[in-house]
Amino acid sequence: MKIGVPRALLYYYYFPFWESFFNNLGCELVVSDKTSEVLINRGIKNSVSEICVPIKVYIGHVFNLLDKGVDYIYVPRFISIKKNITFCPKFLGLPDMIRNSLQGVEGKILSNYIEARSDDISNYKNYLGFMDKLGVSRSTLKNAAKKARKVWLNFREKSRQGLFIDQILNDRIITGASNNEITIGVVGYVYNVYDQFISMDFIDRLREMKVNVLTFEMLETKKIEEQVGKFAKKMFWEFTNKLLGAGYHFIHSPQVDGIIHITAFGCGPDSILGPFLDTEAEAFNKPLMRLRIDEQTGESHLITRIEAFTDMIRAKKEEEEGGSFR
Amino acid sequence: MKITFPHMGSPLIYTKLFELLGHEVIVPPKPTQKTINLGVKYSPEFACFPLKVLLGTYLEAIEMGADTIVSSGGNGPCRAGYYGEVHQRLIRNMGLDIDFIIFDELKRDYKGFINKLKKLKGQHSWFDLYKIVKTAYKMAVSTDKVKKFIEHKRPYISDKKKLNKVKLAIEDQYREIKTEQDIVRVEEYAFKILKGLDIEEKTGAEKLKIGIVGEIYVVMESGINFNLAELLNDFGVEVEMSHYISEWIQENLIPFVSHEKEIMKKAEDYIETIIGGHAKQNVGHIVDYKERGFDGIVHLKPFGCLPELVTQSILDKISDDLDLPILSLSIDEQMATANVMTRIEAFIDMIKQKKYKRSSDHERHVFGY
Q1: Under CATH, which number does the domain A162-323 receive?
Q2: Per CB distance under 8 Å, which residues of B are interface residues toward A?
Q3: What angle do CA A292, A294, A299 make, to 5 degrees?
Q4: A240-292 pLDDT, tens per residue?
Q5: Which Pfam families match (chain A) (predicted)?
């Protein structure tokens, strides 16, 4: 059985789990191609114009998998991985959207509800529906979930050691020195930061500019939750809270010189997160830049902005450090 | 305390509620272009449209002297449940010292909820509070009954000027209400004068019915939806909306009572689970309107609205499956009246033709010509 996994959305957070899990269920895993202009254009054509870019990208990947002739495309319905916190409505309705708006997917969607108490989504009960559809026994399911969990925890550990997700997924060797002059905390969802087409490799570009980069998944969960805990009412969306916590941590951390909030056009949760980051960064005098990416962003514009931002931070740092003995 | 609140639909109910509790009420102005501009100016660019208009409304009310804003919270995952937090932050950042009383679900913060009620009830006893809330709720039910009647009959009333006068007279009467008994009397009065109007109802293929579904704020607030219900009425179309304030109260504030379950069930083929806002209810309403013989649906959503975008994605499928025309309109600060008018007019022409064709096909079939 060939199972297709779109290289989009939570692929960048859960792929190691899915890979191990489906392989252990005896399925062949097919991943869609990397995002390209052709691929994204199919997504754009087949989605409503106002929907956020990551969803358009996802739809492009679904079509790409249809071309590859898979038996099923795995489209999970992520409900919650923390008590009282859910995912953005577009995640909740994703299988409905895919099922009811795309031609040719009928009968090809493999979906399930993901409800967990933590990031760990390995509870086999979430996958019981697969028994019939994939013809596997309960014990196989249980076993596969257990093995996949280990693989995934290992992946998360690598993130916390400071590796970038795309490096781990692609076994890429880190380029650039790690002891750079300035450090920037990048606040962004994995599917925006690590989709090389969408983000135009901006992390690599930062590193080329001799910048240390930190992202939310490199932080200990405790550090993120410490910050989020300060809010009487948490934001409703799982990964937005992670970004909120990470953003606040970066703002307060003396090791971080500046923050880049990378957000996709049409992202609803980010429109709420934005003002919270802005006011906090302003109060603590930490430079913050927002990069809004969409399907049409030009590369030169991105580079210019990143260059200007890092130059500004360098100048600020020099002045501050110089000021102390002047 | 000088209390104000969001303007959504008729402000009559909230005004009455806070008046009966003995507060000074600053009735928020109906949203206009000025409100929108003000809101847009101080809101994040990609915030949803209702957040912007409500911010504008608050700022206008603050200018009129309001010092306390009362609103409801929510659990998400739609952004509306977080408006309170964002509005507070934006308004405080502007250096305005305004008190926010935001009612979240009881179970989220039981003690806080009671404290907020205490603050609002002032010297009144808990029993008084109960009676006053009940009166306001009954008034919402009653005014909605009148509203629904007008939305059904308005297309058939030729003397629109007289109807508008009657409407104002009815509103004045509601404004004077003190007790539940008064409501019964005013409602009787309202229906008596409404039924006294010249109403020439259409039948058969001439009769057109459109259901309005969508995000609750843009559906209920005529100030920003181009007065859609009346606009459709003026084209000779009966309308019904998926949201009325009394129903919102029933679903959200009265425990154990829910009429939405049945409606939600009808949506299950398209949206399996609750995804926030009223997306699932709206799809259910579309199916329900079809079953009840409606001729078309207008779907309203604020630009970029998270749950309604999921709905919009599957509208084509629903429309095909049900053989029901659906017009989806996205509302934001850049929407122009002429655009809406043109699209509405074309939509109505289309469903008229569709209906005419169907009925003449039917006649041909029955009479054999």
Answers
A1: 3.40.50.11900
A2: 44-48, 73, 75-79, 81-82, 85-86, 89-90, 93, 104, 108, 270-277, 279, 303-307, 309-310, 312-314, 316-318, 330
A3: 80
A4: 999 999 999 999 999 999 999 999 988 999 999 999 999 999 999 999 999 99
A5: DUF2229
At A158-208, the pLDDT tens digits run 999 999 998 899 876 655 445 668 999 999 999 999 998 989 888 989 988
CA B117 to chain centre: 25
Tell me the ipTM for this assembly: 0.91
Fold annotation for A2-160? Rossmann fold (3.40.50)
Q: Are strands B208-214 and B237-241 parallel, antiparallel or unpaired?
A: parallel
User: pLDDT category, A110, cuts 50, 70, 90?
Assistant: very high
Q: For B279-296, what is each residue's pLDDT tens digit?
A: 999 999 999 999 999 999
| Long-range pairs for B188-196: beta carbons < 8 A, 24 or more residues apart | B190/B146, B191/B146, B191/B149, B193/B166, B193/B169, B194/B146, B194/B149, B194/B150, B194/B153, B194/B166, B194/B170
Work out the minimum CA distance from B199 to partner chain A, whole angstroms. 42
Interface contact B89-A279, CB threshold 8 A: yes
pLDDT digit string, tens, across residues B28-63: 999 999 999 999 999 988 899 999 999 999 999 999
Are the Cβ atoms of A275 and B313 closer than 8 angstroms? no
Neighbouring residues of B48: CB distance < 8 A, sequence distance ≥ 6? A268, A271, B79, B80, B302, B303, B304, B305, B306
| A residues 90-119 closer than 8 Å to B (CB) | 90, 92-93, 95-97, 100-101, 113
pLDDT in tens, B154-185: 999 989 899 999 999 999 999 999 999 999 99
**Nearest-Cα residue of chain A relative to residue B274:** A92
Among residues 295-324 of chain A, which lie with CB inside 8 Å of chain B?
none
Task: Please state the domain extents for chain A.
Answer: 2-160, 162-323
Strands of the sheet containing B2-4, edge to edge, are: B24-25, B2-4, B68-72, B99-103
Average of per-residue pLDDT across B11-38: 94
Partners of B330 on chain A (C-beta within 8 Å) are: 50
The structure tokens listed for B236 are 């000779």
Collect all residues of chain A within an 8 Å Cβ-Cβ radius of residue B279: 89, 93
